[in-house]
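User: Run a structure prediction on this.
Assistant: Running it now.
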Amino acid sequence: MASGSSNNRTMESRTGRSKQRYNSKGERLVAGVVPLTEDRAYVLLIQSTRRKGWVLPKGGWESDEECTEAAEREAWEEAGIVIHIDYDLGEVIDSRPPKKLSKDAPKALYRFYEATVISEETNWPEKHKRERQWFTFSQAKEALSDRPELLQALELSTMQRT
């Protein structure tokens, strides 16, 4: 898979949903990454902007890009990392109960990719609103415990189970 070719990176995050993709069920299509160290010992998580806690980099897959490009863009915008996509981890279904869904947060269908972090940049589009931190598998599992879709993506990865 061609990846790591983010030389067209911008310091502006995409906003709005005018180019957002939805499937025939009305589910928002979301691309995400499980960003790992080369030795697969650590995963990089970022602070959520909507609620407290840690999350994997992810965001809307837009109509002018391939899903892998969306995953690379989200890794850059949210975590300030340049990645190489190694594996397609497949689809993860949103398991939030209906009461947690809204017009601003519709049901989503996630496509996650396992990726190797090539570089961590000092400046990135969402630096002012997100922290990033490396976690072991057990630390990440605990940090993502209230986000079953993110936990499932982590568990699908080849990360070392320590």
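The longest helix spans residues 67-79.
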